[in-house]
Input
Amino acid sequence: MSEARPAVFLDRDGVLIEDHPDYVRTLDQVHIVPGAGRALARLVRAAWPVVVVTNQAAVGHGYISEELLSAIHGRMAELLQAEDPDARPDRIYHCPYHAKAKLDAYRQDSPFRKPAPGMLVQAARELNLDLARSYMVGDRESDIGAAIAAGCVPLLVLTGFATRDISQWTVQPAHILEDLTAAVDLILGDAQ
Output
């Protein structure tokens, strides 16, 4: 088997697409964060595996179906590729589970729900990725927690619901950056 490669893990809402306080529930609510497509494409062209890992309790609460979630991801892909045709993540993982989900089938504590590292660990196993040399870019404490639990470098971007005052968080990012473009600048600079 070939040597495991470092990767970049990306949260979806607040990193690639604009976050909504009450979940993204329709295709009309899918708007990419400006520059996210170009930033993602730079990683792809630099041969970094890119994996989206997203908590999607909206499914567990019954607000959207798995089918609509898939359509939302399709719309996101269209918009990212409209900004740059190379803006294609290698894989998207989602966790529909939540301890207080309204739908019985999804009501559970899951090792895949961030801040647990399950989605990152699964991706590493399936795609032969080296978590210790990888980065996780997110906009919430749960993203930073998942990165740390998986052994990745945690990067916080301010394009979602994150604020500059993270002093009360139980985990801290390695860097706070304005957006995905700045995160990619750092990642590609570190790799040289």
